[in-house]
Amino acid sequence: MISTLKPDVKVLNTFGAMMIGYGVNCIVPRLGEVYRGLFLGKWEGVSRSSMLGTIILERIIDVVMLLVAVIISVFAYNGDLFNDVVWLKSTIYISTAAAIVFVALAILFFLWKTEVSEHFIKNVLSFSPKFADKVSYVFHTLMDGVAGLRGTKNWALTCILSLIVIIVYALTTYVGLYMFNLYTNQEITFAMAWVISALGSFGVIIPTPGGTGSYHAISIFLLVELYAFNSESAAAYAILTHFLSYIVFLSCAMFFIFYINQRRRNRGEKSENFFSVFKLEKE
Question: Rounded to an integer, what distance in angstroms lies between the CA atom of residue 178 and that of residue 171?
């Protein structure tokens, strides 16, 4: 998505910005998404509004892929998943409605990215032409990011990579179940890991710092109620897997801020921090 805005974007910067976003989300929910766009925009010299636009598009794709993962879980689960997880059906309805609304708004705003949108903004903000120009610029660059996927090849590649991402999530859950010796209670299958990974994602979506509390509650519920693991093992799995990811995200966030800024200083470029990325500059 970002390569459509800047073809030579550095993988180090994109990965570093992503890890910073994860780290910030461990402290303040959702603020990490903003910081990810701000840091990457500064480091790559691309409009930060466009970066935020790509993140909006990415979040829409995330919701769609989560729904796909949950639907697959319904067939992978050996039983009636809707009956055993009473909140699942209503959650799917709400998520589907939200995805449709977001997609509709994205299409609407994209179609408005013409002289009509510029005329509308300038009329509403006619009391300050300079401010109207700034708002119009931000709106257009934001839409550049939202429209970041251009061409059949990019869409196909994004769908394939998104599917690989949720498969890797399930694999990490599969490995985690073995790490905690849960296979001694019963057989661990990939289908089991898929269901736990997909439904456990709702615990991360809930806006708590790093999914604290919500991830634990849902993970324990799934392990105990769906697969009859004992509560002590389920709690140990939830607490330790969350703790490990928390430490990794925070450590990587601090590392990449230091490492990338050090590389920039060595090249005579400006370093960035959590305050400087908000500084307004001509983009």
Answer: 11
